[in-house]
Amino acid sequence: MRGYERLFGAGPKGALISLVGTALTFYFQAQLQLGQIHGSPTLGLAFLMIGVLGCVSLILWSVKALPVEKRGRELTILGPFKWLRHPLYAGFIGPFGLGLALWADDWSFLIFLTALHPVWHLIIQSEERLMLQEFGEDYRQYCAQTGRFIPRLFSPNPPPTKP
Fold this sequence. Notes:
It is a multi-pass membrane protein. The chain crosses the membrane at residues 7-30, 42-63, 83-101. Keywords: Membrane, Transmembrane, Transmembrane helix. It is found in: Endomembrane system. By secondary structure, this protein is mainly alpha-helical. The chain has a domain at 38-145. It has 6 helices and no strands. The longest helix has 25 residues, at 41-65.
């Protein structure tokens, strides 16, 4: 695995697509006129703050469980990686994305967020192929036990327990 791919994976490509999509959603929001979700600026700000807090918490927990120098060199199942294969990305498309959509208070953002989720599943495939090449059967089993962005709470395969 090359240095850039090892450190950043699919993150930059996914971030660019997400940012462009968010900007386009802001731009076309007035033309679409899909309506407000809740109509409360205070509630919207609270959702955004909760989303940012959730995202930052997930990122910090991820970096603690898998420091930068170990990325692509070790397969970890500690911390959030016990439940998610890609907790860094999940933080952005999960809590932060939902918080942003509810802050914007427009249905177009929830529709965009819903459409963005499968796009990230496509983007992440190249990173997962590299991980499979690097870690082989261990990574294949890990994939069977954990969700990409959403924990598999009701999976027949329990999350891994050994580091």
